[in-house]
Amino acid sequence: MKKFFVILALAAICCTAVCAVPAFASEQSVDSALVDEAYSFVNELCQLRRNDGDVQAWLTTKLQSILPVYEQSFPYNENSKGTNLIVSVKGADSSRKIVVGAHYDFNGGEGASDNACGVAALYLTLKQVAQLGSMLPYDVDFVAFGSEEAGLYGSQYYVDNVSADKVSLMINLDCIGIGDDVFVMCENKRTQLADLILDNAALPLKEKPYAKGTYWQYDAYGYGYYEAVQGSDHTPFRLAGIPVAFFFAGTYSARWGYAQSSVAEYNVFNTDRDTFDILVKECPQFGERVAGISQTIVSTLTSDKFAAVADNARNELLNLNGWYGILWPSVAAAVILAACAVGAYMYHRKLQKKALLGTAEVKNQAVFDKPDANDIFSFDGTAKGASNNGDNAPSDSIDDIFTFKK
Amino acid sequence: MFNKLRSNYKLSRVLVRIAFVLAYMFCNWQAGLLAATQTCDLLLYTSGINLTAWCVPIALVAQMLIGAVLMLIVPFLANTFLNASRFYNVPRAEYGLLALLFFTIYYLICGALKSLNLITPLLLVWGGILFPVLVSLGCTVWFYRVTAKLYFNDVTAPFYFRNLAIVYLICAAVFGVIL
User: Fold this and answer.
1) Which of A20, A352, A32, A297 is nearest to A170 (CA)?
2) Do A255 and B162 touch (CB under 8 A)?
3) B179 CB near a chain A CB, below 8 Å?
4) Is the CB of residue B46 less than 8 Å away from at least one CB of chain A?
5) Residues 69..108 of B with a Cβ closer than 8 Å to A: which?
6) Which of A191, A291, A333, B148 is the most buried (most CB within 10 A)?
């Protein structure tokens, strides 16, 4: 018996060892020089925002130190204009394009976590990719989006002015600082793209859990069988049929949804508490996260499998757009109801014919053979539930009620 | 068992009402849980109140309350239907109870079909719209056959059928297709 338990225990240990797939399988470690650079980049950007400096000009200068920047201006209100900062890197094949994006506007505090960290990761990724040149399979556009917080105006404008067929993939970086864990979200199912990113992860990275069943409602973004989508710059791309990979930090449960943290005071984004000081205090490892994500993206883009995976990513999208999800089932339901209406009309005619020859006998059947007089009216002239035979038992009977006797 | 229930209207009424509320909760727990989680998220973000651990009980209680309110509304609507149709010979309380019973069956079948969404998303989109229409159609036909046999003769049955069909088609079109 003892032997049996020993074998069972050994088998359990072996199974655990085999089944416990690490969240990130890559052996690469985070470059400490990149970590330091991420720290100083975020610090500098937050300082600029604190002092109401010109963030756009500063960021343009930073990006221009690597490659030329194209400023794409767009109107988003009657009197407001925003600007996307675009840096293009040539790859081996210019017929296809990858977009890596992060928004540089902010809402509340200094926007340290949302989204100075994302912009820092974008900058570090660009810096590494610029040195690779033709090692990239496709062209890559690095876009610092404007006016995300005002309503995704920058990313929407970019999508409206790019050939969607040409873009193979969009990688979005938003809110990657404070948060319990770092996630990547691709599609609401297992995809080759998600697997490839996880295989090349340079930091503990999780794929966002699929929300099977629990989140059955159709959401406004067109994802269909999905939870409520976190609106960010990847959303206009996904709505245009472009595969996306969205990096974000937080805690996520298919049961209760998304939050930055299970600790309430760590939920800082879009609040005045989204400052550099709180970022350092609550998430001292943010530099590793930013550098790690940038390394992950570079490793993914330069992977041997990347071109094939990116080419196939469109085939893996869930085909649940608004027309498919709402219109056609509704049309089918309307057709069924119309058929019912026709059938009902014909059956009604049949009943009418039957009525001509039928009898008008009083139906006195009922489900309850001893109905309660308090609940069913009676015609016997006594008050409801009152006794008329001297004892306290209810006097109503089935005959009293349905035959109008007495 | 069934004969005992037939002779005890009050007990039957209590049992049917309990079954109705439970069936409603069984049918709508997914939507209730979604609404509760979104509300808890909103509270967490806006006021820092962390109720995420209470999402499931909140969803259950909310569904129970909605079910209890519907439990009162359904017999009232059945009564209104009889009044509007001028069917004065039908025992109102009993008819309302039968209506509750058929709604219970409807919710149970819909709940079972919705449970398929936990296994596969294949039926979610089309099933979400078509299942309620088809199941309610089946339940309405069944309800008509039972009540027509009990309370209506050859002369009154066509009027009853016509009115019930109109009410069903309007409700199914509004709640199943338009909304």
Assistant:
1) A297
2) no
3) no
4) no
5) 89, 91-94, 97-98
6) A291
Q: Are A187 and A169 in contact (CB under 8 A)?
A: no
Residues A260 and A273 grouped into a single domain: yes
Helix (H) or strand (E) holding A205: strand A205-207
Domain shared by A101 and A130, yes or no: yes
CA distances from A72 to A78, A82, A83, A111, B158 (A): 18, 8, 5, 22, 70
In chain A, which residue's Cα lies nearest the Cα of B98? Answer: A367
How many domains is chain A partitioned into structurally? 3
Q: Do A256 and B55 touch (CB under 8 A)?
A: yes
Considering the domain boundaries, does residue A5 fall inside one? no
Which positions 233-292 of A are in contact with B (Cβ < 8 Å)? 253, 255-259, 262, 264-265, 267
User: Which range marks the domain in which residue A354 is found?
Assistant: 321-360
- Decide if A194 contacts A187 (C-beta within 8 A): yes
pLDDT digits (tens, 9 = 90+) for A235-269: 889 888 899 999 999 876 544 457 777 777 788 88
Whether the CB of B50 is below 8 Å from some CB of chain A: the reply is yes
Rg of chain B over all Cα atoms, to the nearest angstrom: 19
pLDDT of residue A354 exceeding 50, the answer is yes
CB pair distance less than 8 Å for B52 and A262 = yes
CB contact under 8 A, B55 and A255: yes
Question: Is A81 a domain residue?
Answer: yes
A200 shares its domain with A148:
yes
Q: How far is B149 from chain A (nearest CA, A)?
A: 8
Contact check, Cβ <8 Å, A214/B45: no
Tens digits of residue pLDDT in B119-132: 665 666 678 888 99
Q: Model confidence over A76-129: pLDDT tens digits?
A: 877 888 999 999 999 888 999 999 999 999 988 899 999 999 999 999 999 999
pLDDT of A222 over the 50 cut = no
A1 falls within a domain: no
**Option in B98, B156, B177 nearest A334 (CB):** B177
Q: Chain B within 8 Å of A190 (Cβ-Cβ)?
A: no
A225 neighbourhood in chain B, CB within 8 Å:
121, 124-125
Q: Report the CATH number that the domain containing residue A300 is assigned in CATH.
A: 3.40.630.10
pLDDT higher than threshold 80 for residue A41: yes
Cβ atoms of A183 and A208 closer than 8 Å: yes
Measuring CA to CA, which residue among A195, A312, A196, A177 is closest to residue A247? A177
Rounded to 5 degrees, φ, ψ at A295 are -65, -40
Q: Are A200 and A300 in contact (CB under 8 A)?
A: yes
Q: Check whether B167 has a pLDDT greater than 90.
A: yes
Average pLDDT over residues A178-197: 88
Give me the helices (H) in A178-252, please. Answer: 192-199, 234-239
Instruction: Work out the minimum CA distance from A349 to partner chain B, whole angstroms.
Output: 8
